[in-house]
Amino acid sequence: MKVKAGKVIEYILLLGLSAVLLWFAFRHVNWGEFWTDLKNCRWEWVVAMMLLQCLITLMRGERWRLMMRPLTKELKVRETYDAYAICYLANLAFPRSGEVVRCGLIAETRKTHFEGALGSVVIERTWDILCTFLCCIPLLFFGRFRDYLNEKMFKPLAESMHIGWLWIALAAVAVIAGLVWLIRANRERISRSKVDAAILSFFRKMWGGITSAFRMERKWVFFGYTLLIWVSYWLCSLWTIYALPAADGMTGSDALFLMVVGSLGWIIPVPGGFGAYHGIISVTLMSIYGFSQTNSLAFAAVSHEAQVVQMLIIGLISLVSWGLMRRTRRKSAETENDTQTNTPTTI
Hints:
Layout: H1 5-26, H2 31-39, H3 43-67, H4 77-93, H5 98-108, H6 114-139, H7 143-161, H8 165-185, H9 187-192, H10 194-212, H11 219-243, H12 252-267, H13 276-289, H14 293-342
């Protein structure tokens, strides 16, 4: 298989970006204090978080299998779990490659086609975006993030414009309603512009992905898995807080905020989120929570590296598992062919 030079250059540039981000994040760290933070870490909470991450992978695999039931009912739990674990492993090396890899693995089973599996991934990612957005809503009303926004953004805005919270909220609703009306009134003109049409198509697909879950077979099981997955993500964030003595005093709302912020570090297309995750979490902890740079990076390192180790372990195990399944399928196919060849033809 030929590897395009452009892809190699792109990967090298992303790897370089990751190295630069790591250097910027760790350049002023007090390493003595950093290692002290790690020594004082309550590792039992880290292990619990890693085990819960394994359970999340299983739940995501099961939810994905449920989404593909209209295409096939023959997929096994082991197949979707292994495909998901290998997806995470692929993403650690090559950003955004995991989704294609897991769809290819499922298509390899010949129980469904690649395009169908990829379509289910689009629906799945649409719901992930929606859930991330929904997780942001409580942050506007509870916790230090609300206080930070109020102090740094909304209060100065209200004072400078001599208006209150109610008028800001009404203005926001009016702007959104106005945008919706403009889009609906100018649909034909928008469709003639390639850029506008592409943006509109993106939001239509997102809306289609959201509404398709309500037409899904066993939709309440889908919603149940979705709720359990995101509650588990929040627990992982909370247990990371429990693991670091420097984070003592932080609450569940803080865990929710760090979960949302941390997801941005994984989205940035650098291998394994290295550098991006550390930078985003450390800046957040320093600016909003008053952490020192060393304490904030110790927190980011424990959270990120625990997840990376967990992904490596389950990904490698699933690679071996998938190889064994592939060998079993091949032997089964060969046996079936031999049987058909040796069966006498009757006239």
